[in-house]
Amino acid sequence: MKREKFRTFAKIFQKMRILLLGDYSNVHATLAEGFKALGHECVVASDGDSWKNYPRDVDLKREHSLQGNLNFFWRLMKALPKMKGYDVVQLINPMFLSLKAERILPIYRYLRRHNGKVVLGSFGMDYYWVYVNTYLRPLRYGDFNFGDTIRTDEEAEWYRGEWINTPKERLNRMIAEDCDGIVAGLYEYWETYQQFKDKLIFIPFPIRMPETLAEGSYTKDGVVRIFVGISKGRSAYKGTDIMCKAAQAVQEKYPDRLQVQVAEGVPFAQYQEMMNNSDAILDQLYSYTPAMNSLLAMSKGIINIGGGEPENYEILDETELRPIINVLPTYESCFEEIENLVLHPERIPLLQQQSIAYVKKHHDYLKVAQQYLDFYQTL
Questions:
Q1: Mind listing the pLDDT tens digit for each residue in 14-41?
Q2: Domain layout of the chain by residue ranges
Q3: Helical axes 331-343 vs 240-253, angle rounded to 10°
């Protein structure tokens, strides 16, 4: 009996070698910090999520020029022989490298052959996200539908053309069928992979809590400061164009009580600096849940005005904290909620305190890393 307990203990605390391939919104870089802090070996190989330039151990950024392509392929060929012998390889997305889907497939098979378990991340744009939300529509609204109405804006149509009946679809479906596990980082992503329930798990995104919190600005001069971060070329698709217009309209109505700051297409470090000392952030109009940017802001005590639908709290089993100002995907809803915050600033301190408590409770990077390790052990 004692020997069996020892074996169980040794299995749980066995040091793991983990390779994280690709990155979105600092998910893998933050997760790697958690793994390392818990005593495991972890390598992040990514392109830094393009212009956001997140940290990584192996740089797989590709500059689209002749010299840039040559440099990329040289670095990839040097890196591949070292991508062997890991207990777990986790992919940020089926398109985990800056290559065509047809060229990623043999690399996936190489990784599958030379490593232990392979986990697919459901963290963003992929075939199931596009197809399920376009045709099955389990969400009331989102990136590809408003109720039963399919979105036809330019970017939504472009993504449908990229992922449906294409090599990307075939790659995604093959990996989803073949891999050992699938991890969804948001409720919405979890919902679109329901056909893989036997290998699917929801684990919240990881956030490293700041060591010191920026002092809230509102108490200084009575002005509410709202920050809007806009991704390059994705403003209409993510709804930040509508949120920004609503905030600026409220600012025109109350010029002495509201200040709006907009950041567009800036590197991650600069983005964080611009965000600090804001009272609230506007992010992702069509989301049910706060994603990495919103969670990072909330960890600093910045209120998230965006996705806070009931499903978000339910999947976390959260029954008390309600720190998010939820908005429906309309200009009118955004205007109303922003105006309400400006007219009732006494709400700010409690919402800021709850924001910090919420992220610490559900998204602390060490707690999340342990949830991943527990999942890996079950594979």
A1: 899 999 999 999 999 999 999 999 999 9
A2: 2-206+364-378, 218-362
A3: 40
